[in-house]
Design goal:
By secondary structure, the chain is mainly α. The protein has a single domain, classed as Four Helix Bundle (Hemerythrin (Met), subunit A). It contains five helices and two strands, in the order ββααααα. Strand 1 and strand 2 form a beta hairpin. Helix 1 crosses helix 2, helix 2 runs antiparallel to helix 3 and helix 2 packs antiparallel against helix 5.
């Protein structure tokens, strides 16, 4: 199970700092448990959907579309402090400056990171739901 830490907002979040950090989401939700849970659910759904889009566009070397998806994800990834994918997103956004080989590699890396985030966000959501119902 994920390690738990106390954040500056006074909430309890999983310590997935190598993937993401939900402190900004907790601060923005202002202790509204429903809002916090809804944001996690939206992130899980969006990331899951966009993984499939990236895979499909990448397989067809549709780099402009991959770039658009990366750009669309950028704000959410920034809000959850997903620093590990920051450069990959930038590189995919600037697809016309890179080779097909690099773009394919980065698309795969982004999908792998998003898949890991989805796994951990689901665990966080489950733990969060247990915490608020007890």
């Amino acid at each position: 199970m994920d390690e738990i830490k106390q954040n500056e907002a006074g909430g309890r979040l999983s310590a997935n700092l190598n993937l993401y950090d939900l402190v900004d989401i907790e601060i923005l939700s202002k202790n509204d448990d429903t809002l916090f849970g809804n944001v996690l659910t939206i992130l899980i759904s969006m990331f899951s959907s966009e993984i499939e889009n990236i895979k499909s566009f990448s397989a067809n070397k549709q780099w402009k579309q991959v770039s658009e998806v990366a750009h669309k994800l950028k704000t959410s990834l920034t809000h959850i402090r997903a620093i590990s994918v920051k450069q990959i997103v930038r590189d995919l956004e600037e697809y016309d400056n890179h080779s097909n080989e690099d773009l394919s590699k980065w698309s795969t890396e982004l999908c792998n990171a998003l898949e890991n985030m989805v796994i951990h966000l689901k665990i966080d959501l489950e733990n969060f739901n247990k915490r608020i119902t007890t």
